[in-house]
Amino acid sequence: MRKRIIVANWKMNMNISTASIYLNNLNKRTTIHRNLEVIIGPALTLLYPLSLEIDHRKFSLAAQNGYFKDQGAFTGEVSFAMLKGLVKYAIIGHSERRIYFNEDHQLIRDKVAAATRNEIIPILCIGENKSERVANDTKRVVADQLNSALYNLTSDEVAKMVIAYEPVWAISTFGGEIPKPSDIQKVIDYIRFQISELYGAKVASSTRVLYGGSVNSDSITAYLALDGCDGALVGGASLNYLEFSKIIEKGYLIDKLA
Length: 258
Ligand code: 13P
Prior knowledge:
Layout: E1 4-9, H1 16-29, E2 36-41, H2 44-53, E3 59-63, H3 80-83, E4 89-92, H4 95-100, H5 105-117, E5 121-126, H6 130-134, H7 138-150, H8 155-160, E6 162-165, H9 181-199, H10 201-204, E7 208-212, H11 220-224, E8 231-234, H12 241-257
Parallel strand pairs: 1-2, 1-8, 2-3, 3-4, 4-5, 5-6, 6-7, 7-8
Helix pairs in contact: 1-2, 1-12, 5-7, 7-9
The structure holds 1,3-dihydroxyacetonephosphate.
């Protein structure tokens, strides 16, 4: 059975003191859930201090980025080899990195491979932009992003991965249109179909698939109720511990509703 996950992507927000206050407050409002993993994705500078502070039974850490070479003369970069042991997950291929930092298929593929060889589970973000959606091109875009990123991986590695479907037009800072859960259902089904075509049905039923884009404590339940949706990648709403704790609570309650 796939364990549900809720990921906070803090993006470029918070410093050591605000993060510490936040986690202290979130910790008080969070209990240990057997079927729900809560992942915090803070800025790089916060990973080490937070790793000493958090209750690892309640929270896991994710890096928001990493470099694909393990070491060398790459000024300013931090490799997945350096993140090994510090984080369990890494967000890779986020649309902000594709758009603002020109990350292409090849680079994302190399990053996914580097994270995996360093025993870090990739949370691979894929999703079409507004014009691709209007042109009815969603399936092609999602298939291209998926197929190219998974290219170097074994079946076992793909089975352990997390895929986050984040349509760019639904991200709060890129327009924040609220998608219909039925639209998301179609793409989640298509992602599993693609994985199944490439790696077989067993792998496709193991890989966790998330939704991301303007998720908040009101909308989360409808997304979690979708068939095959294993959780959410939350941006803006994860910056407020009260709001994020409500999202976690809904993630826990969904099993009780089932
Ligand atoms: P929002 O939840 O702010 O739309 O951000 C989504 C996102 O980009 C998470 O990675």
